[in-house]
């Protein structure tokens, strides 16, 4: 893609997503992700009604009267976007590709983060770590992230979510809020890796899917291609049996995904490329507030 074209698209996405983060998400983002980390600040004498679990026994023993720890909210968060850049994200039949929507969601979260003075970084992954952008602050950093989201070309077309989540857990030493953005087309179970990551950090998942993944249209013969393997085949969409099998496969996959997130205690939302991702994110933030 030409540099001038990229810059135009970066600017377009900045205008749209920065507006969303300022006008819609500022309060929701703050209440959904702030206050989950509490930093020890000081001690003071125990007062009636204080939680006995906050008593600092070392200070209490030294002064022979009870003292409690005073905590303050950790204002600054580190936010990490884990972005799936595998081949299946290039697919789109309505309005835009899954990749387009992931870019807009990622940019909106990024602008929400810097509005709250948080650092933000990105892990691009396929079945390998394609690129790691360390967390930083500032508009310049956000625009660099958006440019990479728009123009990044992965080396691999395949997906390994468990590998990416494990990498994130190893890399981030300090407690981090992570957004896992993917269509979750993967043959490998990643529940264990997600459980470990979410026990140390705060992981949130956003599934982006194309509506045709759920329901096949009745349009006769259709050539389909697996974006990750390159395998092509002709299917007959006029077959009601085929269309039912396709929907059943989708429902089974979604059920397995739901169980994975529930077991890992990960909050998640799902949005189709022909839907408004603003509503999906608002609901996700609301359930965490």
Order of helices and strands: HEHEEHEEHHEHEEEHEH
Strand order in the largest sheet: 5-4-3-6-7-10
Distance between the termini: 40 Å
Number of helical regions:
8
Query: In percent, how much strand structure appears in the residues?
Result: 15-25%
Helicity range of the residues?
A: 40-55%
Number of strands: 10
Q: On the 0-100 scale, what is the average pLDDT?
A: 85
CA gyration radius, whole angstroms = 22 Å
Largest sheet: 6 strands, mixed
Shape: elongated
Instruction: Enumerate the spans where pLDDT stays under 50 for 5 or more consecutive residues.
Output: none
Class derived from helix and strand content: alpha/beta
SSE arrangement:
Elements: H1 3-33, E1 38-45, H2 57-63, E2 67-73, E3 78-84, H3 98-115, E4 119-125, E5 129-136, H4 139-151, H5 161-171, E6 177-182, H6 191-200, E7 202-209, E8 221-225, E9 232-236, H7 240-264, E10 267-272, H8 277-288
Parallel strand pairs: 3-4, 3-6, 6-7, 7-10
Antiparallel strand pairs: 1-2, 4-5, 8-9
Helix pairs in contact: 1-3, 1-4, 1-8, 3-4, 5-6, 6-7
Describe this structure in words.
This protein has 289 residues and is α/β, with parallel strands linked by helices. The chain has helices spanning 3-33, 57-63, 98-115, 139-151, 161-171, 191-200, 240-264, 277-288, and strands at 38-45, 67-73, 78-84, 119-125, 129-136, 177-182, 202-209, 221-225, 232-236, 267-272. The protein has a six-stranded mixed beta sheet, sandwiched between helices. Helix 6 links the parallel strand 6 (177-182) and strand 7. Helix 1 (3-33) crosses helix 3.
């Amino acid at each position: 893609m030409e540099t001038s074209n990229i810059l135009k698209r970066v600017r377009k996405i900045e205008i749209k997503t920065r507006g969303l983060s300022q006008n819609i998400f500022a309060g929701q983002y703050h209440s959904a992700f702030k206050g989950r980390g509490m930093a020890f600040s000081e001690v003071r004498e125990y007062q009636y009604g204080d939680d006995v679990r906050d008593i600092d026994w070392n200070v209490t023993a030294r002064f022979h009267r009870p003292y409690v720890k005073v905590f303050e909210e950790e204002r600054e968060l580190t936010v990490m976007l884990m972005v799936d850049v595998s081949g299946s994200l290039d697919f789109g039949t309505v309005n835009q590709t899954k990749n387009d929507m992931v870019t807009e969601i990622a940019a909106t979260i990024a602008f929400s983060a810097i509005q709250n003075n948080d650092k933000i970084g990105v892990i691009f992954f396929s079945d390998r770590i394609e690129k790691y952008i360390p967390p930083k602050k500032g508009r310049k950093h956000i625009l660099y992230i958006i440019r990479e989201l728009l123009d990044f070309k992965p080396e691999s077309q395949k997906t390994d979510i468990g590998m990416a989540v494990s990498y994130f857990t190893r890399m981030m030493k300090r407690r981090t809020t992570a957004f896992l953005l993917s269509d979750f087309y993967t043959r490998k179970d990643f529940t264990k890796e997600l459980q470990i990551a979410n026990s140390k950090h705060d992981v949130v998942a956003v599934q982006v899917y194309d509506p045709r993944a759920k329901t096949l249209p009745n349009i006769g013969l259709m050539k389909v291609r697996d974006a990750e393997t390159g395998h092509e085949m002709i299917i007959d969409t006029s077959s009601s049996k085929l269309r039912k099998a396709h929907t059943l496969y989708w429902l089974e996959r979604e059920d397995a995904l739901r169980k994975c997130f529930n077991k890992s205690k990960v909050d998640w939302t799902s949005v189709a490329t022909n839907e408004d991702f603003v509503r999906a994110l608002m609901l996700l933030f609301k359930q965490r507030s």
